Fold this sequence. Notes:
Radius of gyration: 20 Å
CATH class of the largest domain: Alpha Beta
Structural class: alpha/beta
Number of helices: 16
CATH topology of the largest domain: Rossmann fold
Number of domains: 2
Order of helices and strands: EHEHEHEHEHEHEHHEHHEHEHEHEHEHH
Oligomer: single chain
Helix content: 40-55%
Shape: globular
CATH architecture of the largest domain: 3-Layer(aba) Sandwich
Amino acid sequence: MKVVTVVGARPQFVKAATVSAAIVAAQARGVALEEVMVHTGQHYDPNMSQVFFDQLQVPRPKYNLAVGSGAHGAMTGKMLGAVEQILVDEKPDWLLVYGDTNSTLAGALAAAKLHVPVCHVEAGLRSFDKRMPEEVNRILTDHVSELLLCPTHAAIANLKSEGVSRGVHHVGDVMYDAALMFAKVAGPAADVLARYGLRAKSFLLATVHRAENTDDPARLDGILTALANLATSACPVFLPLHPRTRATLQSRGLQALLERNPALLTVEPIPFLDMIVLEQQAKLILTDSGGVQKEAYFQRVPCITLRDETEWVETVEAGWNQLAGADRARIEQAVAKASPGRAIDEYGAGNAAERVVELLLARPA
């Protein structure tokens, strides 16, 4: 069996690492299973792309499309045409995609048009906000997929409400697999903290990259003003700047937002293994990333989500996560109230990637 995997963004590299490891384990048992990795180049900054292939043992891509950034339609169109040709050449049994990026949608659409069955890992997640491009991507991908592998039971219920029940399975969360796998190989906490001048449990970790925040000056101002207000010399805010966020600040002359308080520490994107350590050692995490919300829970660190909704509703229901949007006052109030929550029995036992491979092998195309 041959599987073509399409990835293009940081969270997908992490998820793909776990499933690729499970594929390698199956090959070691004599299973005839080949994976062909396609990197769309949606994320092309070395610390958001190449570092994952270096650190996480993700198979080197056979194809790198080098699409780069751009408008959603142009980016997705370039990927769609290129992936289509790869599928014609490779003739795979399955197309495997993760999450909700433009790379996910392009891969799924190209495969569906060629009648190559699609396996969607992280199927069924919904924020119920179609203004988000990610929401559109995940809905369309689910509705052309043959195998829909869900991380939570809420995701299964979402699919059922849309009339999708065939090929749906709860497998757990491959991001939980990744948290367990890579926590073992991350560098010593003392070394990582010293590198960035931080002290354990004495800093707030923040990430901001969603278009809904970076493309709206009022929202971006609200978030960065809150972060500047929260930062103190005793408890700084550590903010690795996503290229999209930095570009927006530069193009709109908003760099002063980062200069309001010297305790708001900004750096370039950092390696994933360092990020794991920083998540473990943070007092609190503020983010608009879906993946980081869960990583916060995996590390048992309270989280403030800088969005008005989340697809990971169970983290809110369990008390680990608060939705604060982009309003300065709401963000600051949420930080004041943040505390640990209760355990979440949704994400599996760290064997979701194995389940993905089992289900691919059990459903030959």
